[in-house]
Amino acid sequence: MSHPQKQVVSEQTPLLASSSSSSPHDSQSPRRSSAASSLASAIRKDLSGSTSNSDGRTASGTADGRRYLVRLFKLLSHVENRILLAGFLITLSFSFTQVPLFYVFHLMECDVYYDTHPPYTGDGDRCSVNEIAAGTARQFSLLGMSTTVCGIMNLFFSGWLIKRIGPKATLIFQTSVPAVRVLMQIMGVITGGELGMFMIQATQIVTIFGGPAGYVLVVNVIIGEVVEASRRTGTFGKLQGCVMLGMSVGYIVGGRVGDAFGIQMPFRVAFVSFVSASFYVLSFLPYIDPARMSGSRPGAAKGGFLAPLRILKPQIARLTGGRLVNHYGVVFLCAGIFTGVVATGYAPLLIQMYATAAFDFTQADNGLMMSEFSFVRSLFLILAFPRIISWGRQVYSPRRQALQVAARKKKNATAAVAAARDSDGEQDETAGLSGWTTPKNNCATPSGYGTTDTIDDSSALIMPTHPEEVEVMPANAVEVEVPPITETAEDISHDEGVVDLSFDLVFLRWSLVVDGALTTLAAFATQKWHIYLAAMLIPLGSGSAPAAKGVITDMCTPSQRADALNAVTLVENMANLTTQGIFGYVFAALATRGVAHMTFFCNAAIAVLAMLVLLFSKFPPLGSELVDEADVEAEAEV
């Protein structure tokens, strides 16, 4: 099992033949291309059967529409874009009901309040009562806590299900179950009152089997399997950008639909959206056999619910000399991710609370600000983040030459081992029981067959000086001619394709510092528009989450990739739960002293601490290879 950092651009993953073609997994699925083929035929038929229109303006509009359809079809023909669109559609479905749920609890609390109080006789909104506001906040807080707890359980369930039925079937399951949950919520909205609130709260149990945490994990796993290694980090960023864009659109559309058509309509739209997303996943996403996922071995244990927690243990690396050592790169990486999310995860809610307290922001103002925040962040992650990663890898590549040498040595060693094995097979047929082969020019032969170790120049020059130092071969020994290794055009392209992933880790460290520094800008706001400006600038420090996913997939063995992504998502969720408790208390304590803006500086300080923790996270040494615990135990038994 080779070192995960030695990635080669020219060698595509088994699931993606080229950057311009769809995944070979598409051909493995009998139902995958039906919808895409029908869309292609319809477009070709429309283009071939089109006739000139007497009205020039109408003809021009029709031609433009056809061009847009063709362009859309070309975009969707790439498996990477289909995955990103799936992330957007599913997030959009989840976001439709987020804003309406708050008003549902508000109206139900209002009904419950007047069941035990005299009717309202004053002017204005009858629900504008402190007791009703407190009850609404209590119900919504309980909903948020249950969503977080059930979401963490959903992560374990989704990771377990991926290994059993595959990512595609798991994603369909993750979008179908929420559709059932929305139907149950509609029943709660119709029932109303205290019973209706209880029914809506009880639907959170369904989130364990299908929720907003699990589907993000599944889509990340699909990206890890389908997208080539050099594009993986950038694609993780694009996915998060699509998720943020779906949230931004869903919040606005859900609120508008509720105002225009009644409080039940957003839930009905969400149900239809979940069903549509399920059919989209079934029709357009590639099928990935769980038995053929990266690193899967026949007969290997699939792991249980708690398998992601094993990623948080120190890894085992085999050095070039064969010695096994513990590697703590992933341990410090997860610790840094946790600290970073604690620092930056509370920023969206913090800026809302500060704007409300200091500048009298209304709910509409906060909604507009959060929509701006999500939209700018999505644009940054989709458009800028992949280009920054690509540019940074070209500029900052201190290990590129060493990686090229290591990759070349490994390729040569593999070729020599294959030649030796072929020679062993021929000798077995002619040399009786010994079957011993001795390559000519033995000093150039890699030592420890199957490893990356090679005999250095000093040992190659040692000549025997005593008779006992000369190795005596059996009488039936055969000399095997090992052809000299020459540099070919394929070798040169292979070296040029080696990617140094050091910049990904550097970006992860400093993006947290930039994020914390931009967050402190809100502390200097003196006018209302300053808050909107800060909300536009803070997303420019995003990218730590996708960078962390890209780094951890390269720090782990291929067989641990799904569990590694699960572990990162789990750490992020636990950090979000922690930051809500910590900074909620810090903001309240500082606000009572009239210095609520100091909370932003506390955020920045913790972000710097996260960067310092990440300084201890490093890739395994060059020439080493990560080893699974099962392999170590098997070697120990032998």
Automatic annotation (TrEMBL):
Keywords: Membrane, Transmembrane, Transmembrane helix. Residues 18-42 have a biased composition (Low complexity). Residues 1-60, 418-450 are annotated as: Disordered. Residues 1-17, 48-60, 435-450 have a biased composition (Polar residues). Gene3D superfamilies: MFS general substrate transporter like domains. The chain crosses the membrane at residues 83-105, 140-162, 206-227, 239-257, 269-288, 328-355, 375-392, 595-616. GO terms for molecular function: transmembrane transporter activity. The keyword Transmembrane applies. It is found in: Membrane. Coiled coil: none annotated. It is a multi-pass membrane protein. GO terms for cellular component: membrane. The keyword Transmembrane helix applies. It comes from the Eukaryota. InterPro entries: MFS, MFS_trans_sf. It holds the Pfam family MFS_1. This is Major facilitator superfamily (MFS) profile domain-containing protein. It comes from Thielaviopsis punctulata.
